[in-house]
Amino acid sequence: MSAMVRLTVNGQAVEVPAGASVAAAVAHATQRFRRSVHDAPRAPLCGMGVCFECRVSVDGVVHVRACLTPAGEGMQVITDA
Amino acid sequence: MREHYDVLVAGAGPAGLAAAQAAVSHGARVGLLDMQARPGGQVWRHDVRLPAAPAARQAIEALQGVKLLARHSVVTAEPSALRVETPTGSDLLSFGSLVLATGARELLLPFPGWTLPGVTGAGGLQALAKQGWPVAGKRVVIGGSGPLLLAAADTLRKHGAHVLGMHEQASAATVRSFAWQLRRWPARAAQAAGLRLRLAGVPYRCGSFVREAIGGDAVRGAVIETPHGTRQVECDLLAVGYGLVPNTELAALLGCALDEADAHPRVRVDALLRTSVANIHAAGEACGIGGLAVARIEGAMAGHMAAGDVAAASALLPRRDRERRFGALLARHFTLDPRLRELADERTLVCRCEDVALGALAGYDDARAAKLATRCGMGACQGRICGTALAELGRFPRGGARPPIFPARLATLAGLADFSPDDARRGNRP
């Protein structure tokens, strides 16, 4: 097993293998990544940076595509769902 | 910041890797950009748990001398230059020659319940799992069309998922005919046989497709149409993808002519992969879905062309033509059942970004009019999902590409090199 990276998702501590995406880290905490314009929960669809369903806030920066972003030690990720 | 490359390659999948390697072999200064954090594209995507395919490892190791520009998203084009956004700012990358190796994305079609968390593309869930998405012990139903269903099932099982079944929309007769034709491509036949062997315990149902996803806050089941009637299965994840469509947004932005004979455009190239714009070549899936072997050969051809070696590119033509015939075989055998175009009902959301239901689009026969009236296609994905789906459904072609081709920061569009310290924190970590 490779090294692990520790970060928080909505304040909850999460541990994922080094090289994992923020999307994977979020999935360990919740299935809800964002709310649609009609308030329905949404989660990743395409897994490759195209659909934008996985966008979350990372260290205070909003609209970050979780599937394109490598999880980093100490990151604070907030979902909007 | 402005950087110049003799040859700039957009996309670090198999085609882009081959292009960069070929171009650098001629002594060119080569840049290879990709919006992902690691090279490999989709098919050679890095897996956090499993070792890389030997060919992928070799292609990535062969990048000595190539400047790898990871996490670079192209947002606009200028004459002989691309403006890219990075986690910390933006750059202007100018080029002598450009190779478009932008690959493909999955064709995702709307069906009732497809917006529920836990419903993904088939290749989509495979990509997520490779990046550490937890699938171990999860019950997964896979649906859609083409060899990707098998590849996805294989990856998911290696990550510990319990794959309940693969539902291929093509008929059993068609799939058998495809398997028979495969004998002309022994390497692929062997690969397919290996996959089938590894997936021996997983049901593979032909003439079968996912009609509906069931669930409240997340998916908990699927309604499946089979040749023997409709049935319902419980599942934790539902992964449905109907094959691939070329990514042509960057080509269109650069003014390269597209071939729009089918529902989904592809970049038009001549035999030596020249686009309609001087000094811009295109290779691999962007020119039409052909698979990994095509991507690697065309990438090498385009890299040689971009570095000015027409002879080296021409020498690869016979191999390229042979591999392209495999792409044609795929397209012929996995054409979509017309019933798939009827899955979405009036209330099914088509535009997921703006929550626009299919029923709201009645009466519109072009993407622009529909967008102005309903906001369909106006969201963050810029119509990549809904526009492509509506084109497949036969409603109207996707609207033309306009800059920025991905949502970008104002600072990027203003041409500022660096974001404020606050902004720069985005993803700027080891």
Report on this structure:
The complex is a heterodimer of chains A (81) and B (430). Chain A is mostly beta strands. Chain A has one domain: Beta-grasp domain (Ubiquitin-like (UB roll)), CATH 3.10.20.30. Helix content of chain A is 10%, strand content 35%. Chain A contains one helix and seven strands; from the N terminus they run ββαβββββ. In chain A, the strands form two sheets. In chain A, strands 2-1-7-5-6 form a five-stranded mixed β-sheet, with helices on one face. The N and C termini of chain A lie far apart (32 Å). The model of chain A has no long low-confidence stretch (mean pLDDT 95). Chain B is an alpha/beta fold and 430 residues long. Chain B has three domains: 175 residues, FAD/NAD(P)-binding domain (3-Layer(bba) Sandwich); 132 residues, 3-Layer(bba) Sandwich (FAD/NAD(P)-binding domain); 54 residues, no CATH class. In chain B, strands 1, 2, 3, 4, 5, 6 and 19 form a seven-stranded mixed β-sheet that branches. Chain B is globular and about 60 Å long. The two termini of chain B are 22 Å apart. The C terminus of chain B is likely disordered.
